[in-house]
Design brief:
This protein is α/β, with parallel strands linked by helices and 569 residues long. It has a domain at 91-226: Diaminopimelate Epimerase, Chain A, domain 1, CATH 3.10.310. The chain is 35% helix and 23% strand. The strands form 6 sheets. Strands 8-17-18-20-21-22-23-24 form an 8-stranded parallel sheet. Strand 17 (256-264), helix 9 and strand 18 (283-288) form a beta-alpha-beta unit. Helix 3 packs across helix 8 (237-253). 51% of the residues are buried. The structure holds zinc ion. Residues 88, 90, 262, 467 line the site of zinc ion.
């Protein structure tokens, strides 16, 4: 407890100092501003005082408001828009990804084994080798031998005999372990599958090394124990500091001024309180992900809105009810086309999710549930509907379904009707498109997969993001996916579901702000809002489709302070 009190004290002192620092005052002139304010969509100039926008308008209107001590930024016609808000990502994991093996570029299992072999050569014996980002559907050929298309551990175990290895799937919903790691985790032929997870086995019953959904916990717990840390205790502040700095730097470089984190335990939230007023630049909005028992104990005292000058807000709970489509973990109404005996996995019982929902109502938290398959989405909509009926409120509670990737057509209008936010990640669509029709078949893919346009048309709020580090946190490719659904030149995934350019930018700014109850301070260029904006090399509302991916972030401004500026080439 002392740890928490101390942190609060330190942050209180920092806050006191920051209010006496010189104010962030600036005037931006000659810009091509897309405000995302539908009443007043275009402007040329804006004025910032004390980190907030105090005027937006034409050159004539603004010139008389420029004061002598203001920094004046002449943008010479460049495009300016509200800073991107990452709508669903994992902030510290993004930094961690940069500290471990990056497996996202590997084109085969052999390449991954080679990456581990190289790492093992310089890693002290007994130390864990951690990697992330492999995806069997993105390899040029199937591994040999394989079980259900997944490799077996022998080659990896041979490449790293003296180190435990843990390699997380790109989706984050599956892990691969070598023999050493499985020994530490005491995985035997007769180890039972935990509820909501599977240990993938060969025909003779031995573990392949693949741990699906909640079975991953067996390896992760073994690692935490082996490294002498507990998931809920922040034992290595240096490690977290490095992860936080790397994530912060990458976000501002890519134009992200706010980041919605999809789930941290209370201990990590306590840690964040000590770094959000300096070390971490983007503003964070964090969902709590902890056991129901911890929620009962800590929700009340943890709730915070606009902590440290609007740099940290905690007022939402995260749960997951199924897994991901790539590893066949999404919970479906009908079996998988390419795995006819499986309808995926229900990873958390309805009762447990319902109990967390009641806690959200009791403590005035938003409730955000990961649901990917159509069955998972239906169950979550049912839970939300039951809770709303039992606890009527005049205002929308803005509960969210995270991903909402695959919906039964009957459930699409329920989002708008119930005021449930579809917290989607457009880049998942183009990234997953290579295997979605294999998993779901053409009819289900067309009617219900990544149907953001149908959701918008039915009156739902659709948000956007990348689920980083599942995908690159860069908003530009994700915006491109939102408005083109193009996998590669000439190949699109059901283009009738494309957003318009305006909808695409709104999904990444004002809609994300609404999904966090933050539309009064973020998401558009309007008087009174925080001065969080980006300057880009292209006008994303009008440039050619081909130009979108070439767009560069020239400047990122948070609270009137330039936190990133591209060096001229
Ligand atoms: Zn996520």
């Amino acid at each position: 407890m002392k740890f928490v009190v101390l942190n609060t004290f330190v942050v209180a002192i920092t806050l006191l100092c920051s209010t006496t620092l010189p104010a962030q005052n600036m005037a931006v002139i000659n810009a091509n501003i897309a405000t995302m304010d539908r009443e007043n969509p275009k402007a040329e100039c804006l004025v910032v005082k004390n980190g907030r926008i105090t005027a937006v308008g034409s050159k004539d209107e603004i010139s008389k408001l420029i004061e002598a001590d203001m920094q004046v930024l002449d943008l010479d016609g460049k495009f300016l828009m509200p800073g991107f808000i990452e709508g669903h990502g994992h902030f510290l994991m993004l930094g961690e990804m940069r500290m471990n093996l990056d497996l996202t570029k590997a084109k085969s299992w052999d390449e991954i084994v080679e990456q581990v072999r190289v790492a093992a050569a310089t890693t002290p014996p007994g130390k864990w080798i951690i990697g992330r980002g492999w995806h069997q559907s993105k390899w040029d050929s199937a591994p040999s031998p394989n079980v259900e298309g997944y490799p077996t551990h022998e080659a990896l175990s041979e490449a790293s005999p003296n180190n435990p290895v843990l390699l997380t799937h790109a989706s984050g919903h599956m892990d691969f372990a070598n023999a050493y790691a499985m020994r530490i985790a005491q995985i035997e032929d007769d180890t039972k599958d935990p509820e909501g997870g599977t240990i993938l086995r060969t025909e003779d019953g031995s573990a392949t090394g693949v741990f699906r959904e909640r079975a991953s916990g067996l390896i992760h717990s073994a690692r935490y124990k082996d490294e002498g840390q507990s998931k809920t205790i922040v034992s290595s502040v240096n490690y977290l500091n490095r992860a936080a700095e790397l994530a912060s730097e990458e976000c501002v470089r890519k134009g992200i001024t706010s980041f919605q984190d999809a789930g941290m335990p209370f201990a990590q939230i306590d840690y964040l309180k000590s770094v959000v007023d300096g070390r971490v630049k983007p503003r964070l909005w964090v969902m709590v992900r902890d056991s129901n028992q911890s929620l009962m104990q800590h929700l009340k005292k943890t709730r915070m809105i606009g902590y440290a000058n609007d740099h940290l807000t905690v007022r939402a709970i995260k749960r997951a009810i199924d897994g991901a489509l790539g590893p066949h973990g999404a919970w479906l109404l009908q079996p998988y086309d390419d795995m006819p005996l499986s309808r995926g996995l229900n990873t958390r019982s309805i009762e447990s999710v319902e109990e967390a929902a009641s806690l959200a109502i009791k403590h005035d938290y938003q409730f955000c549930v990961h649901a990917i398959g159509d069955r998972a989405n239906r169950e979550v909509l049912d839970i939300f509907e039951r809770q709303f009926k039992a606890n009527p409120s005049e205002k929308s509670r803005r509960w969210r379904i995270e991903h909402a990737q695959h919906l039964h057509p009957d459930d699409i209008p329920r989002f708008g009707q119930l005021g449930v936010i579809a917290a989607m990640q457009a880049v998942h669509c183009t990234s997953d498109a290579v295997f979605v029709p294999k998993r779901l078949g053409m009819r289900r893919s067309k009617e219900g997969a990544y149907v953001w346009k149908s959701l918008l048309n039915s009156g739902a709020i659709v948000t956007n993001g990348t689920d980083a580090p599942v995908e690159d946190v860069d908003p530009i490719p994700c915006f491109f996916a939102s408005v083109t659904r193009q996998l590669k030149p000439g190949v699109t995934f059901f283009p009738e579901q494309c957003m318009s350019r305006q909808e695409g930018l709104e999904s990444y700014t004002i809609n994300n702000a609404k999904a966090a109850f933050e539309e009064d301070i973020k998401g558009s260029i309007e008087v009174g809002k925080l001065a969080d904006f980006v300057v880009l090399s292209n006008d994303l509302l009008t440039c050619d489709d081909d130009e979108i991916l070439k767009t560069k972030v020239l400047r990122t401004v948070i609270g009137g302070e330039t936190v990133y500026e591209m060096k001229s080439e």
